[in-house]
Write a structure and sequence with these properties.
By secondary structure, the protein is mostly helical. The chain has 64 helices and no strands. The two termini are 73 Å apart. Belongs to the Integrator subunit 2 family. Pfam families: INTS2. One of its GO terms (biological process) is snRNA 3'-end processing. This is Integrator complex subunit 2. InterPro entries: Int2_metazoa (IPR026236), INTS2 (IPR029321).
Length: 1186
């Protein structure tokens, strides 16, 4: 924006003073600087402040004193005296008018007819008209921006271009935005200012007067910016405006640059901000520009890399311009490169030193403090040329060659620099273009070979240029450059690179502490180029040996090596030879690694390190995941690589290893997170949230302190002693308690030998008179073991809790059995259902196996689907009319099976919540659920046997025998917690279960005990639309409890719908169905009215309508029906009259009838009496509620 070059911008000093409201700094500003900030300062001085402190009062006096001598303040005060509310209304009317007119500038409400030009009108206008003129012009530009669909335009506006009135227009603009923020969002105003001349100056003034909006404006401009800013005039103007903003607030420049990278917009701005950046403390190693560009091109984000590479490529296609950000960047990089060259080697920097230090060959040593910077520059130029396609100029190529052939000192950084230089020469041989340059490179290569041993010994590193030459031979080999291969191989004394590679010894105790080029780098590159499979050389043994020779901190090349090895096992080197693959690691070799880990012989020395075991675990999990992902391609090639058996996976302590890895995250790099990702995908039952929470309780600070208090010479109990204590229950309760308390002090890993004794004796704890403390302690020990060996522990527990009849048949379930049918977990001893500590364990296993079953079926479907489809396609070849593989049907069948499993589990658990006949006798006949006692009596929940006046005391208010704390109550709470989690994880389960229905007696429990059951309000209308009366009855009963529990507007609307449905069904149901439908749901109307009193009229109308329909059917049989209808009408019209004054007994009492009369009464007569009783319940509940 060169047109604003002569204007004075807000300085960084002034902006910081405004941002911090530093009055002392503001007073130090010059008059021209202060003039730019007057709109904000005047508003600050005149408006009532939110800060009422004494310090601000003093500051405000200083601001007023500061403003008192400025003449322009009077015009700003006059602007603030305008009625902005009326102005905003006129502006919105004008916007509507323009919108109707299609954006044309015909009529204007803000500005009437202009007699002169816009500038003259502005000069002669009063403050209100100035505001209207500026607002009208600004709104026109903003509307045009919206209608332009991203196409840039430059609006010619004399109001924003006249240098005489720029300050006054800026004042008006700032006041308008501050007083009308909803009409003029600052981001939209900023976007509009880009389309006028001097827009960057106006934008900086606007932001300086609203300093808190800096980040918001910058982010908005970047979001709306172009992906390549130097391609268009609009992009360059946007970049320049943002650059000016960052010069005004340099402390935020790096944050703005981060926004640029995040949005992948305006790459030139990111480079420009880096060029402008001046750090407080200069980093002698690497400059900010090198760090920034290297991070973009060599980072892991491919989107960012592609975006910036396009910026480089597009920038080279334009003519070289000094104003281009790309050429500024290249010039800066070249200057940095020349600055670190040895003086005798640089042709651009004059040599003002002594020439005696130079050797006769013209070579000079690279200074040690410049080696790291030189390496960074070489890597950056490699990235620019290789990734971004940069074509170096002759000057750049010459200076790069001078730097590459510099001779660094014999340090580790020097070894790295030589390696980079050599690789850059191989990657970009076009840098050498003249015979002199070729001779220079030959001399340098000769020096490198000559100095190899000296560098290795003097630098103290294990890097070898010989290994690097092997790596070079491998690169050439992959490119099939036979002449160069022969040359390099003859130099190394080898004929075949791959045959030599497998004979190279593995690196002992390989870790990240060993730097330089190693055999693993060579093997990795050969695997990538598929050299081993092409030449039929087996590399499996070498990789297995190297994985066994690893240590922490983990070497960064190990995980990529495993990934490329897995790819070479599953994917053939070429379609022509589908058998050209590597061999996988055998199951026996894998078992050898884990034979002394958790669950094995813990007394012996662990042969393999935890790093080896974690890497092998990563290999297995990644292999299985890639095998599933490649089934389609493998099916097309008629290949089916072998999967590792379930028996092998059962013997690997996956959870124990991942727990160990959690404490070594810093040393394992990204291995821990990679393992968690694989577990979450393939073993979701090992990633339960409650397991992680329990793990914190087991491995936290308090358990650690308790273990530290455990004396080293304390008595250690054996597994047989523990088993004997279980067998002698209940007489051995004290001894068993001592043993279990001792075991709680052990770590989960030390508990593993006791796992079998603990689980095998669980059935003994179901006997009566076993202390509750023993059960709770066993639960705690089980949860601790669950953190290290969950799968094996679950199988042992399920087998131990089988009913005694099954134990006689010695039926032992396996892990696979439980994943195929998770409901086996619930086929346990019935006594477990009334033992809360053991029921907690059963529910934990059930949740885990339901998740495991989902993953198992998904894998099974993916394993077989592609091969079945391929075989069916081959068999159907040439047969017309054959359908394709029923892929959708298989997926639907799987989903149906999973839904059936989940719903069956929920239904079984709900049945467990029902009290048995013995419990009902103990708790009382009226106790339908223990949780109902918390909620109190539900309105309308009256006994069906009493059609006369209700007895409201005694049984319903009595607490069940034994109080609320009982085994049934605790089991109900545990089950409700699990159902809550299941409903949250998959709301479709809740829908399916409620469409199936369950006993009405459980509704108080489920509604009060499952917080997520409110989602049923979403599908109750659908349930009401079902044709079965039973489902409609269940829906209304469920809704009545939901309305009482969740009195929400949504509940009210669904309740209205239910009343409407009941009224509709009244007109279509037969006499028998009418009785069976309304008798159980009439009490629900009481709950509706109690939750939502506005429904009283609708409910009363429905009840009268039901009574009239029934009365019409029995008019000839029952003579007291007409008086009953009259009573109903009276109750509907005057409900207050039904209750005596003072809350006494009912004035309109129900007639007493004998049981024989009720038993032999007509169904319609019974329904009439039930309607009247419901009326009385509603009135009584309403008045008692008042």
């Amino acid at each position: 924006m060169a047109n604003s070059a002569g204007l004075q911008f807000v300085s960084s000093y002034a902006f910081e003073a405004m941002q911090k409201v530093d009055v002392a700094r503001l007073a130090a500003l010059s008059d021209p600087e202060l003039r730019l900030l007057l709109p904000c300062l005047v508003r600050m001085a005149l408006c009532a402040p939110a800060d009422q402190s004494q310090s601000w009062a003093q500051d405000k006096k200083l601001i007023l004193r500061l403003l008192s001598g400025v003449e322009a303040v009077n015009s700003i005060v006059a602007l603030l005296s305008v009625d902005f509310h009326a102005l905003e209304q006129d502006a919105r009317k004008e916007q509507q008018l323009r919108h109707k007119a299609g954006g044309s500038n015909g009529e204007s409400i803000l500005v009437s007819q202009l007699q002169h030009g816009l500038t003259l009108e502005f000069e002669h206008s009063d403050p209100l008209r100035r505001l209207r003129l500026t607002l009208s012009e600004l709104l026109a530009i903003m509307n045009k921006v919206v209608d332009s669909n991203g196409e840039f335009f430059l609006k010619s506006s004399e109001l924003f271009e006249s240098p005489v009135y720029l300050d006054e227009v800026a004042d008006v603009l700032c006041i308008l935005q501050a007083e009308l923020p909803s009409l003029l969002p600052i981001v939209d105003v900023a976007e509009a200012l880009l389309h006028v001349r001097n827009g960057d100056w106006f934008l900086c003034l606007l932001v300086a007067n609203v300093p808190d909006s800096f980040n918001e404006v910058c982010r908005g401009l970047i979001k709306n910016g172009e992906r390549q800013d130097e391609e268009s005039v609009g992009g360059r103007r946007r970049t320049e405006a943002l650059r000016q903003l960052c010069q005004m607030n340099p402390s935020q420049a790096l944050n703005i640059r981060a926004m640029v990278v995040e949005e992948c917009h305006l790459p030139g701005l990111g480079v420009a901000l880096t060029l402008d950046y001046r750090p407080d403390t200069a980093d002698e190693a690497v400059s900010p520009l090198v760090s920034y560009v290297s991070g973009l091109l060599l980072g892991t984000n491919s989107k960012v890399r592609t975006w910036f590479s396009m910026f480089i490529r597009n920038g080279q296609q334009r003519k070289r311009e000094s104003s281009s950000v790309l050429w500024q960047m290249r010039r800066q990089l070249l200057l940095e490169l020349v600055a670190i060259l040895p003086r005798s080697r640089s042709t651009h920097v004059p040599n003002d030193g002594n020439m005696e230090e130079e050797v006769s060959s013209g070579y000079s040593g690279l200074r040690e403090e410049h080696v790291v910077k030189a390496s960074a520059l070489l890597r950056l130029y490699c990235a620019l040329m290789g990734i971004a396609g940069l074509r170096p100029t002759d000057e750049e190529a010459e200076q790069l060659l001078q730097l590459m052939t510099s001779r660094p000192p014999a340090t580790p950084a020097g070894v790295r620099f030589v390696s980079l230089s050599f690789c850059k020469l191989l990657a970009f041989p076009t840098l050498v273009s003249t015979p002199e340059q070729e001779q220079l490179m030959v001399m340098w290569l000769s020096w490198m070979i000559k100095e190899e041993e000296y560098f290795e010994s003097a630098a103290g590193v294990s890097a070898s240029f010989g290994e690097m030459l092997l790596l070079v031979a491998m690169y050439f080999h992959s490119n099939q450059l036979s002449s160069i291969i022969e040359l390099v191989c003859s130099t190394l004394g080898m004929k075949v690179v791959t045959a030599h590679a497998v004979r190279v010894a593995v690196t002992n105790n390989l870790s990240a502490n060993i730097t330089g080029f190693l055999p693993i780098h060579c093997i990795y590159q050969l695997l990538r180029s598929r050299s081993f499979t092409k030449h039929k050389v087996s590399i499996k043994d070498w990789i297995y040996r190297q994985l066994c020779e690893t240590n922490t901190p983990i070497h960064t090349q190990l995980i990529p090596l495993i990934d490329v090895y897995i790819n070479s096992i599953l994917t053939p080197a070429s379609k022509a030879n589908p058998e050209a693959t590597n061999q996988p690691i055998t199951e026996q070799e894998i078992l050898n690694v884990f034979q002394s880990s958790a669950g094995g012989s813990r007394g012996g020395r662990q042969r393999y390190s935890i790093t080896t075991q974690l890497l092998i675990l990563y290999y297995i999990l990644s292999y299985e995941e890639n095998l599933l992902a490649s089934t389609k391609q493998l099916a097309l090639m008629q290949r089916k690589p072998k999967s590792y058996s379930a028996a092998l996976m059962d013997q690997i302590p996956i959870k124990y290893l991942v727990t160990q890895a959690q404490g070594l995250q810093q040393e394992l790099g990204g291995l821990h997170s990679a393992l968690l990702r694989l577990l979450a995908t393939n073993y979701p039952h090992l990633c339960l949230v409650e397991d992680w929470v329990c793990e914190e309780e087991v491995t936290g600070t308090l358990p650690l302190l308790r273990r530290m208090m455990l004396p080293s010479n304390t008595c250690r109990y054996t597994q047989s002693q523990l088993h004997q204590a279980f067998l002698k229950l209940p007489s051995s309760s004290p001894r068993l308690m001592r043993i279990l308390e001792h075991l709680t002090l052990l770590s989960p890993g030390d508990l593993i030998p006791y796992a079998e004794a603990l689980t095998a004796s669980m059935a003994l704890l179901l006997e009566p008179a076993v202390p509750r403390r023993i059960l709770q302690t066993l639960n705690k020990l089980w949860m601790g073991l669950n953190t290290v060996m969950p799968r094996r522990l679950w199988v042992m527990t399920v087998n131990a809790l089988q009913p005694s009849a099954k134990l006689l048949r010695q039926q032992q379930y396996t892990q696979n059995d439980l994943m195929v049918d998770p409901l086996i977990v619930l086929r346990c001893d019935q006594r477990v259902y009334r033992c809360p500590p053991l029921m907690d364990i059963v529910l934990h296993m059930l949740n885990g196996y339901l998740l495991a079953s989902k993953a198992y079926l998904h894998c099974h479907l993916k394993e077989t689907a592609d091969f079945d489809r391929q075989s069916q396609t081959v068999s159907n070849l040439g047969v017309p009319g054959q359908p394709d593989t029923p892929e959708v049907t298989r997926e639907e069948l799987k989903n149906a099976l999973l839904s059936a499993q989940d719903s069956a589990a929920v239904q079984i658990l709900l049945e467990v919540c029902l009290p048995t006949s013995e419990e009902q006798q103990q708790l009382g006949a009226n106790t339908e659920s223990l949780l109902s006692s918390i909620r109190g009596p539900v309105p309308g929940k009256s006994k069906r046997g009493s059609l006369g006046p209700r007895a409201r005391g005694g049984v319903e208010d009595a607490e069940p025998e034994g109080g609320l704390l009982s085994d049934l109550r605790e089991v109900q709470c545990l089950i409700c917690c699990l159902l809550h989690q299941m409903f949250i994880a998959d709301p479709n389960i809740a829908k399916l279960v409620h469409f199936q229905g369950y006993p009405q007696a459980l509704l108080p429990l489920t509604v009060a005990g499952i917080p997520s059951i409110h989602i049923c309000l979403d599908f109750i209308p659908e349930l009401l639309a079902q044709p079965q009366l039973e489902k409609q009855i269940f829906a209304i009963q469920l809704l009545s409890y939901l309305c009482t529990q969740y009195a929400l507007p949504k509940s009210l609307s669904v309740a209205r719908l239910a009343i409407s449905v009941m009224g509709t069904l009244l007109t279509v149901l037969t006499r028998a169905k009418r009785f069976s439908f309304f008798m159980p749901i009439l009490p629900c109307l009481v709950a509706f009215c109690q939750a939502f009193p506005p429904l009283y009229d609708e409910v009363a109308g429905l009840l009268v309508q039901v009574g009239q329909v029934c009365a019409s059917d029995v008019a000839t049989k029952a003579r007291d029906v007409d008086p009953l209808i009259a009573r109903l009408q009276y109750l509907k019209e005057k409900p207050q009259g039904a209750v005596a004054p003072g809350g006494g007994s009912s004035k309109l009492t129900l007639p007493q009838r004998t049981a024989e009369e009720h038993g032999g009464a007509d169904p319609d007569v019974q329904l009439c009496y039930c309607v009247e009783a419901t009326f009385m319940d509603i009135i009584s509940a309403t008045l008692h509620g008042l």
